[in-house]
Amino acid sequence: MIPNQHNAGAGGHQPAVFRMAELDADLDRILPSPVLPPFWAKLVVGLVAIVCFARSYDGDFVFDDSEAIVNNKDLQAETPLSDLWHHDFWGSRLSSNTSHKSYRPLTVLTFRINYYLSGGFYPVGFHVVNILLHGGISVLMVDVFSVLFGGLQYTSKGRRVHLAPRASLLAALLFAVHPVHTECVAGVVGRADLLCALFFLLSFLGYCKAFRESTKEGTHSSTFWVLLSIFLGAVAMLCKEQGITVLGLNAVFDILVIGKFNVLEIVQKVLHKDKSLENLGMLRNGGLLFRMTLLTSGGAGMLYVRWRIMGTGPPAFTEVDNPASFADSVLVRAINYNYYYSLNAWLLLCPWWLCFDWSMGCIPLIKSVSDWRVIALAALWFCLIGLICQALCSEDGHKRRILTLGLGFLVIPFLPASNLFFRVGFVVAERVLYLPSVGYCVLLTFGFTALSKHTKKKKLIAAVVLGIVLINMLRCVVRSGQWRSEEQLFRSALSVCPLNAKVHYNIGKNLADKGNQTAAIRYYREAVRLNPKYVHAMNNLGNILKERNELQEAEELLSLAVQIQPDFAAAWMNLGIVQNSLKRFEAAEQSYRTAIKHRRKYPDCYYNLGRLYADLNRHVDALNAWRNATVLKPEHSLAWNNMIILLDNTGNLAQAEAVGREALGLIPNDHSLMFSLANVLGKSQKYKESEALFLKAIKANPNAASYHGNLAVLYHRWGHLDLAKKHYEISLQLDPTASGTKENYGLLRRKLEQMQKKDV
């Protein structure tokens, strides 16, 4: 028994069930196959989804993963859980002017759980969760597509009938294997999109249950499911901001599908001044108005809370992030925004050219309507207008419902990334297409069924469908491999966006991290050539030139960087280091002070300022600067070490010992601190304790020649001459050029020879 039917008009006089059977029959003509039960269909889709992206399971943390995970203190146990609700996705306080304002506490919470279960920053666990999430979402898509293609029908026991199983399975497979999802699945940061999609779909399916009528429960059951759907939408929003759009999709579903609102019929009645317009069933439907009130109130409440949490207002993006949004002309902005939409549509249609970043000159601005790329805009809107007309005005209710929901899923989740309501910090981003791809899969599947009716070449269509699935699977496997390491990921972007300065910058940074400075310099120079205002590339290039003692060019680059961006604290600090090396001490001090002015909590800058003061024999100022560094960063080993050494060299042994013990209390396993404190204790004639620290330091770093050499000096003073001889020899084996050790070893040998003569 199937008493409850909620199909958007049965298109003429045909029953809805017949239309669903017809849809699947059309697919059966091009892809003849037995109908899989829902369980087996979900199993197939889940396994295919996991296989497509399984190659990324042992990948590294790449690109944005470093900032959002590795450098994010919110993942560590020392950070209170309550801080997650006051910080953005990257671990910065939302109230800060520099905050990205991306509020995703539930996503960060899953990262924290991953970190706890993995026992540290081991990427395998993070990647496995992402792959399983995509598999689970793909399984859920079978139910979602069943609603989109088959409508809502429930048995007398309240179970939803799975209609159009072939169409649902094909669409779910197309979703599971779409290569544009690689960034979300293979990049750990993409978990925000995955979790958002999961709760988005659960919210939609929950809203569908509001129409499971029951004679006993009635309105109360419907209200519960609507409220649950709103709650799940809020959860989706706490995973990623895009989640709130599910409320808009639910409203469209309710009005156009459940309410059977026929735009064509309304327009005709308006044109003919039909009096029956006043008695529209939709306007008299109290249940619909009540549900719309709940959705509107829930959405408004979520937006209000979200705005209050943001604190200082929207984030501040730069022109390189989204150049079109900074264009003076409204026409230029509109043309470029629409061109971006067409590029997103192309990525769904042909996901072959994929790139981790599309900013920094990757897509040059369209500045005139004579630009040939305007054709893409025309093609996009020609297709969209045609689909919208069919979705709203078709007399075929079945076709109207599928196209409406397909366009709804395609457009509504994309709205936050459209630049229509606020400026976004990117040009094109593959990750934001995860949910819109659901609509694409609906339209593509429906297109195949429609095409099968109007052509006799069924085998050709079948070959195209299978080809798309298999080629996309292969592309997913290849692209997942590229996301396993930063080197592969960045180099893969060169062929897609050769004009993207950020691509060259990231390749240069990766090479520099591996010690290949010569190649890194080449890519950094290209990044600066492509974007002459790229201050981060200038800063990194200046650093490498500084290390290669090319100080003049380094100073020019860093000076230009701070001129372009006066609040760039890191560049000011590096400029100070270069000026210090050039013996321009006053300028160096001024640069350090400027860096600290723009970044008050800057321990590394205080450390370098201390080194400058030490070079100028301003010992008190040096100690104060290093003390500031350790207050801001208690684990700053270099600052602690310099304090101990300076106090030791100036004869303040008691103070040096106190500082050394304080430092080791905070960083107990730092062998360099053990070594420095051991030297102080040896000079204070605390030989036993000094020996213990030397031996502990040597155990941690057995190949440090100075550790063995200074331990030998301790034994020499202590009178343990044989042990002194042993460690002098080890030290000289490790570093034969150490003149001080050679001299001390020579003195020891002469002393041992004199002792032997006396014994004789």
UniProtKB/TrEMBL annotation:
<feature type="transmembrane region" description="Helical">
    <location>
        <begin position="460"/>
        <end position="481"/>
    </location>
</feature>
<dbReference type="InterPro" id="IPR019734">
    <property type="entry name" value="TPR_rpt"/>
</dbReference>
<dbReference type="InterPro" id="IPR013618">
    <property type="entry name" value="TMTC_DUF1736"/>
</dbReference>
<dbReference type="Pfam" id="PF08409">
    <property type="entry name" value="TMTC_DUF1736"/>
</dbReference>
<dbReference type="Pfam" id="PF13432">
    <property type="entry name" value="TPR_16"/>
</dbReference>
<dbReference type="GO" id="GO:0051117">
    <property type="term" value="F:ATPase binding"/>
</dbReference>
<keyword id="KW-0472">Membrane</keyword>
<protein>
    <recommendedName>
        <fullName>Protein O-mannosyl-transferase TMTC4</fullName>
        <ecNumber>2.4.1.109</ecNumber>
    </recommendedName>
</protein>
<dbReference type="Pfam" id="PF13431">
    <property type="entry name" value="TPR_17"/>
</dbReference>
<keyword id="KW-0812">Transmembrane</keyword>
<keyword id="KW-0808">Transferase</keyword>
<comment type="pathway">
    <text>Protein modification; protein glycosylation.</text>
</comment>
<feature type="repeat" description="TPR">
    <location>
        <begin position="603"/>
        <end position="636"/>
    </location>
</feature>
<feature type="transmembrane region" description="Helical">
    <location>
        <begin position="222"/>
        <end position="238"/>
    </location>
</feature>
<keyword id="KW-0256">Endoplasmic reticulum</keyword>
<dbReference type="GO" id="GO:0030968">
    <property type="term" value="P:endoplasmic reticulum unfolded protein response"/>
</dbReference>
<dbReference type="InterPro" id="IPR011990">
    <property type="entry name" value="TPR-like_helical_dom_sf"/>
</dbReference>
<dbReference type="GO" id="GO:0007605">
    <property type="term" value="P:sensory perception of sound"/>
</dbReference>
<keyword id="KW-0802">TPR repeat</keyword>
<feature type="repeat" description="TPR">
    <location>
        <begin position="501"/>
        <end position="534"/>
    </location>
</feature>
<dbReference type="GO" id="GO:1905584">
    <property type="term" value="P:outer hair cell apoptotic process"/>
</dbReference>
<keyword id="KW-0325">Glycoprotein</keyword>
<feature type="domain" description="DUF1736">
    <location>
        <begin position="313"/>
        <end position="385"/>
    </location>
</feature>
<feature type="transmembrane region" description="Helical">
    <location>
        <begin position="405"/>
        <end position="426"/>
    </location>
</feature>
<dbReference type="GO" id="GO:0016020">
    <property type="term" value="C:membrane"/>
</dbReference>
<feature type="repeat" description="TPR">
    <location>
        <begin position="535"/>
        <end position="568"/>
    </location>
</feature>
<comment type="similarity">
    <text>Belongs to the TMTC family.</text>
</comment>
<feature type="repeat" description="TPR">
    <location>
        <begin position="569"/>
        <end position="602"/>
    </location>
</feature>
<dbReference type="GO" id="GO:0004169">
    <property type="term" value="F:dolichyl-phosphate-mannose-protein mannosyltransferase activity"/>
</dbReference>
<feature type="transmembrane region" description="Helical">
    <location>
        <begin position="432"/>
        <end position="451"/>
    </location>
</feature>
<feature type="transmembrane region" description="Helical">
    <location>
        <begin position="374"/>
        <end position="393"/>
    </location>
</feature>
<comment type="function">
    <text>Transfers mannosyl residues to the hydroxyl group of serine or threonine residues. The 4 members of the TMTC family are O-mannosyl-transferases dedicated primarily to the cadherin superfamily, each member seems to have a distinct role in decorating the cadherin domains with O-linked mannose glycans at specific regions. Also acts as O-mannosyl-transferase on other proteins such as PDIA3.</text>
</comment>
<dbReference type="GO" id="GO:0005783">
    <property type="term" value="C:endoplasmic reticulum"/>
</dbReference>
<keyword id="KW-0677">Repeat</keyword>
<feature type="repeat" description="TPR">
    <location>
        <begin position="705"/>
        <end position="738"/>
    </location>
</feature>
<feature type="transmembrane region" description="Helical">
    <location>
        <begin position="163"/>
        <end position="180"/>
    </location>
</feature>
<feature type="transmembrane region" description="Helical">
    <location>
        <begin position="192"/>
        <end position="210"/>
    </location>
</feature>
<dbReference type="GO" id="GO:0032470">
    <property type="term" value="P:positive regulation of endoplasmic reticulum calcium ion concentration"/>
</dbReference>
<dbReference type="Pfam" id="PF13181">
    <property type="entry name" value="TPR_8"/>
</dbReference>
<feature type="transmembrane region" description="Helical">
    <location>
        <begin position="244"/>
        <end position="267"/>
    </location>
</feature>
<feature type="transmembrane region" description="Helical">
    <location>
        <begin position="288"/>
        <end position="307"/>
    </location>
</feature>
<keyword id="KW-1133">Transmembrane helix</keyword>
